[in-house]
Amino acid sequence: xxxxxxxxxxxxxxxxxxxxxxxxxxxxxxxxxxxxxxxxxxxxxxxxxxxxxxxxxxxxxxxxxxxxxxxxxxxxxxxxxxxxxxxxxxxxxxxxxxxxxxxxxxxxxxxxxxxxxxxxxxxxxxxxxxxxxxxxxxxxxxxxxxxxxxxxxxxxxxxxxxxxxxxxxxxxxxxxxxxxxxxxxxxxxxxxxxxxxxxxxxxxxxxxxxxxxxxxxxxxxxxxxxxxxxxxxxxxxxxxxxxxxxxxxxxxxxxxxxxxxxxxxxxxxxxxxxxxxxxxxxxxxxxxxxxxxxxxxxxxxxxxxxxxxxxxxxx
Length: 315
What we know:
Layout: H1 3-7, E1 20-22, H2 23-28, H3 33-39, E2 47-50, E3 53-55, H4 63-74, E4 79-81, H5 82-88, E5 100-104, E6 116-120, E7 128-130, E8 133-135, H6 138-148, H7 152-164, H8 170-179, H9 186-214, E9 220-221, E10 225-226, E11 232-234, E12 238-240, E13 245-248, H10 258-273, E14 277-280, H11 283-288, H12 290-305, E15 313-314
Parallel strand pairs: 5-6, 13-14
Antiparallel strand pairs: 1-3, 2-3, 4-5, 7-8, 9-12, 10-11, 10-15, 12-13
Helix pairs in contact: 5-6, 6-8, 7-9, 8-9, 9-12
Organism: Actinophytocola xanthii
Protein name: AbiEi antitoxin C-terminal domain-containing protein
């Protein structure tokens, strides 16, 4: 801080994040307690935010000022989560009228502050700087918000928005949920399962319509496929036994959890080793590029029909 700033009180607001200063910082610059008190009077240019904190401007504090005040109170390594982190990420699904949610180290203590929820966490996330604040990554912010929500409609709206906008996959949310403190996870866990089930049913509906649009013979849907010896190979979403063609539409396949991804790769490997042509399509392609998918299906069917093949059967 410059000597000029120490003398020019009008320059002080530019030296502090979001114009929020601790009284101790102002005293360290050379201001007396009396001078600070005078400037915080009703007719002065500053306002008191919290005990020991000053807003260096003469207007009601906004949300950003309250966030910065909460961070200052929480101390080093504090991270913003909850609805304010969602807003900083550009995911606006709730009014910003709840408390500021601040994650802080587990052994740190802070005083009770109106409008702030201090959350001591054993697993502090690596923050992202957004809007001038250290905020939790989007998956953590979504789950933290859901864990504190009381109404199932609010939880469903937030999870659905995060998924439909393409910002997060169910797998990413499920992974974050599994790492969260168990308190408050039952409701978002149940609703996330409902969303996953609905997504699977929706993708299957799209797939059936595209098979008809492509003009292909009806496949067997969800039928186990066995090899020449009768051993089970896999259960693809669609199976054309007459040409040994398998099609898998795995919702959100681009971000599957590790175990599910391993299973999908193993199924495809078993089928390919048995001479099956395997098509794997993410559901977003069914929705966004149906003509392209239809062309791919027709091409794969023709290629599968124009070759010798082993005898495989669906149960």
